[in-house]
Amino acid sequence: MNLREVVLQPVAASDEARFQSLMATHHYLGALPKIGDTLRYVATWQGQWLALLSFSAAAWKCAARDAWIGWDFRHQYDRLHLIANNSRFLILPEHHVANLASRVLALSERRLATDWPARFGYPLLLLETFVDPQRFHGTIYRAANWHEVGETRGYRRTRTGYSAATGPAKRVFVRPLHARARACLSHPVLDPRYRHGAPHIMLSADQMLSLPEFFADIPDPRRGQGRRHPLPTVLAIAAAATLCGMRGYKAISLWAQDLSQQARARFRCRWRNRRYEVPSRTVIREVLVRVDPDALNSALQRWNLQHAEDEDLAVDGKTMRNAIDADGRQTHILGVVGHRSQTCYTQKKSAPCP
User: What pLDDT, in 10s, does the model give residues 138-189?
Assistant: First the structure.
């Protein structure tokens, strides 16, 4: 086989089922549904399928990766879209040829440079992947000039957030797609060409702990039997999700479901069956629709006073009042956060990444 004749191309819609079937059969982790923005590729030679790989949304948290980048945790959530995770890589059993894996990885880097922005509207600066040391040594990634930066802590994503217990740690490898990828990702001000959508931030543990206190005095509009989740908890989660860029009840609910058990404890979530539970989308919507808008606005203004020095956490009370519908009810909380305007970036004096 002449490796120079190997080509890589996106998986056609008509081949998706074949791709998933082969992954389910031959990859030790099985097939993987699309996680956020996802691209799937197949490497071929003279029409034969040789290898399959997919690139998906980056891990929300990875201490080894984050330390290597050196970015501020407050801003990393706003830049995760610039990282893609090599979530699956499979050389089909009958095609284990020397240097084939390195060739495929090199081809994927070239394709992603154009395919990703063409499909999703923004570029990539960094690739990441996790290697199980009980099965592999990461040799193919090292051969393709990926950097090993540490190990994961063993937590895994679940449908309800993150696992409470740790599993085997995995090795973390990264591959910059830009000569100044680390500098751009860690710079205090993100270059405008790399921004995508509304700005997002992350909250500290102390901020999570303090949020429910701001809503403690708001009257609960729900009936007694419908109060499975404390009102301050529901409002704190909704406010935190909005501060982190979530828009709409579904997005807020999904953000809440992704919270770790430790984060849920900080929000004072309900303890049941030895786990902290987050409010459902229905509960969040019911509370935000029925809560007293003036009381909510007052609580948000108190938050604003405490965090006014931080533009990213500013709350715009006027915008908040504009979110009240004709009946005087709070229709949603999505207009309360002033940080979503571009001013939180343009007002800073630091020069953008070159």
Answer: 999 999 999 999 999 776 655 445 556 567 899 999 999 999 999 999 998 8
Inside any domain, residue 93: yes
- Kindly give the pairing relationship between strand 157-158 and strand 161-162: antiparallel
Establish if 174 belongs to a structural domain: yes
Structure-token pair, residue 311 = 């533009």
DSSP state of 170: -
Range of the domain at 36: 3-194
pTM above 0.70, yes or no: no
Q: How far apart are CA 102 and CA 14, in angstroms?
A: 27
Question: What 3-state DSSP class applies to 171?
Answer: strand
Domain count, the chain: 3
H-helix or E-strand spanning residue 157: strand 157-158
Residue 260: which of 347, 114, 154 has the closest Cα? 154
Among the listed residues 305, 304, 302, 283, the one whose alpha carbon sits nearest the alpha carbon of residue 220: 283
Return the residue matching tokens 């301050």: 232
14 and 154, same domain (yes or no): yes
Sign of the alpha-carbon torsion through 93, 94, 95, 96: positive
